[in-house]
Input
Amino acid sequence: MVNEYPSSRAEVIELMRDKGVNPTQQRIDIAQALFAKPQHLSADQVMSLVNQQRAAVSKATVYNTLGLFARKGLVREVIVDPSKVFYDPTMSPHHHFYNIDTGELIDVESGHFELSQFPPLPEGTEAEGVDVVIRIRNSATH
Amino acid sequence: MVNEYPSSRAEVIELMRDKGVNPTQQRIDIAQALFAKPQHLSADQVMSLVNQQRAAVSKATVYNTLGLFARKGLVREVIVDPSKVFYDPTMSPHHHFYNIDTGELIDVESGHFELSQFPPLPEGTEAEGVDVVIRIRNSATH
DNA sequence: CTGTGTGCAAAGCTTTTGCACTACT
DNA sequence: AGTAGTGCAAAAGCTTTGCACACAG
Output
């Protein structure tokens, strides 16, 4: 298993400290929801999960915290749907199937892809990452 | 040159008819803005372009028309920025650099990539397309 | 007590919806 | 006249901003 998800509260806090994120109560709640298992959650879904347990974390805090986590390298932002961003706790290199019929997002092991010749980058820039999304649809549908 | 962009009004109308899009005045205006040259425009930018020439096309019509064009295969939606969709008049298979510092979007010739082994699709689905985005940033920046 | 960092209500943008209107049959 | 398709004002939804509050030094 490439990714070890922190399961206990203590492990979550340790990971946050490693990544330079101050572990406050709201952030711990949000991180625990994300790292519960491999999954792809929208900000809205994260908020539902968090607020069904403890009292309340505001929408703004959920958004700001997810953005912070992404910048700090705790989670990955997956941009496939114009209407919302998904957050992916799996940080190892991998790509995604995106089912345009169901909105479902599925991890694809990296290694299926070969960048035969990495295209020359524009002058004065460096690569930050490569995102591959394979859009799929249900066969029955047309 | 792989893509021939319709340059005259007549050519734009012909292309729309080919693709099964009823060529109304608003749609022609929008199509002409898009096909003026290879570029990546947001809905907002399209509206500015269209409305600086003729009187006025509403925001809603711009959005609805761009969505229609994308479904009909006149333009391609490029989803790289959570905040907005870009529309790309180049329909030949290609990928994109996305400069996260400047928001700039640059075409990359396809062919740099090799799908060594296409990953097995989930049961009951078929591939619709593959999007590859190489995120880059300015070297100076950190 | 001061300064940095955090959380959230309210504001801002992009996009979608529902309905009036148009243009064919 | 009836019907299918078009355009837009208003509504909705996702995300960011600006400020009040909390906490460490």
Q: What stands out?
A: The CA atoms of residues 94 and 110 of chain A lie 4 Å apart. The mean pLDDT of chain A is 87.
